[in-house]
Amino acid sequence: MKRVCVTGAGGYIASWVVKLLLSKGYMVHGTVRDPCDEKKNGHLKKLENAEERLKLFKADVLEYENLCAAFAGCIGVLHVASPVPGGPVSNPQVELLDPAILGTKNVLNACLNAKVEKVVVVSSASALLGNPKWPTDLEMDESCWTDIEYAKSIEHWYAMSKTVAEVEALEYGKRDDLSVVTICPSFVIGPMLQSTINATSLILLSYMKEEGRTGGDTIENAERPYVDVRDLSEAILLLYENPESNGRYICSPYSLRTRDFVAMMENMFPGHTYPKIFTEKSGRTLLSSKKLVNLGWSYRPLEETIVDTVNNYEELGFLEKGKPYPATIKF
Ligand SMILES: NC(=O)c1ccc[n+]([C@@H]2O[C@H](COP(=O)([O-])OP(=O)(O)OC[C@H]3O[C@@H](n4cnc5c(N)ncnc54)[C@H](OP(=O)(O)O)[C@@H]3O)[C@@H](O)[C@H]2O)c1
Fold first, then answer.
1. Average pLDDT over residues 169-195
2. Which of 103, 244, 113 is nearest to 178 (CA)?
3. Which intervals of the chain form a coiled coil (predicted)?
4. Alpha-carbon dihedral of residues 157, 126, 224, 180, nearest 10 degrees?
5. Pairing state of beta strands 76-79 and 54-58?
6. Active-site residue, from 162, 276, 281, 290
7. Does 162 contact ligand 1 (Cβ within 6 A)?
8. Quick one: residue 216, left, alpha or beta (phi over 0 = left, psi -120 to 50 = alpha)?
9. Ligand 1 atom, smallest distance to 34 CA
């Protein structure tokens, strides 16, 4: 049976990847930092087929030996674990750079040790967007990279961590007997499987709820690129399974201004506390997912994502129940 390992299995994106793999008949190894933390990882054990086919291993990405133990017997690794800060970072080296960069190196070394054949590394659109030389109105493709020195100068440590880790992962794939593919998702939205809210879901929640919104009634009208977490999981598996996949792939089907995004939500789910004032933020974020689409990737309509996300937030109790969206409408 096909056996693969997902790092950081209990996280927002990784949980969907694990669910998808289990539904496709894979034997799944998942690394988590604390297998006994039911709040963080309990949901994994409840996934369909988890009892028979999911095995959790304790491993921080900075612990090489533990990674080797988790990857033993696997032919593939989907490396998702990397810190996503929910606020200001006091020690970027320890909190972000080391787990992202050294962590990825450790994962790749452990893959070689375990004779893994292929790795998909989850990078980020942050590894593209910090490129001041890219023409504003030109769609970004995979040739666009965040300028590491620029990211450092503006102390965008997350962008720096993801960019350096991705550059090194692709270099590693060139040097050694291991196929390495990277994927750069933009702002990931969609329902959560885990019970503790992740950083980016918290941002989306703040579109509908004043609590957590720094500007009260006011929000920045920035253009933001989005992808559904379920479509992203399909993309990660597609890159893993397709022998033609190579290099890096942008995964970001939609770009829209916050005002337009909020208007869609408000139209579908009136009754929540939406921001009223939008401060203008210039600049475009146009990302092309053509390379991924050409490989066979498809994605759902944004409306479907919004409906499923808001229903999920209400079910999990992160959002008080608003007016239900009519179930008769199909996308
Ligand atoms: N959400 C987005 O919009 C977005 C967009 C682009 C790319 N990404 C990338 O997607 C990946 C997953 O993000 P997410 O949104 O799913 O966030 P998340 O729910 O916070 O997941 C992050 C995962 O990384 C794990 N992790 C952090 N530091 C670790 C370490 N030192 N050792 C082992 N595991 C560690 C966390 O484990 P614990 O549970 O133990 O803390 C958690 O499982 C990250 O690589 C992120 O950069 C996310």
1. 95
2. 113
3. 40-67
4. -150
5. unpaired
6. 162
7. yes
8. left
9. 40
118 is catalytic: no
Ligand 1 contact, 8 CB (< 6 A): yes
Predicted TM-score (pTM) of this structure: 0.96
- Hey, how many other C-beta atoms are within 10 angstroms of the C-beta on 45? 12
Of all atoms in ligand 1, which is nearest to the CA of residue 41?
A: 39
Strands 218-221 and 277-280: parallel
- β-bridge partners, 219: 278
- Per-residue confidence at 282, pLDDT binned at 50, 70, 90? confident
The arithmetic mean of pLDDT across residues 19-23, rounded, is: 98
Domain spanning 3-186+227-252+285-299, CATH architecture: 3-Layer(aba) Sandwich (3.40)
CB 139: neighbour CB atoms within 10 A?
16
Is-contact 33 60, C-beta < 8 A?
yes
* pLDDT, tens digit (0-9, with 9 covering 90-100), for 45-85: 999 999 999 999 999 999 999 999 999 999 999 999 999 99
Where do the structural domains in the chain lie, given as residue ranges?
3-186+227-252+285-299
What integer pLDDT is reported at residue 112 of this predicted model? 96
Closest CA to ligand 1's atom 24: 81
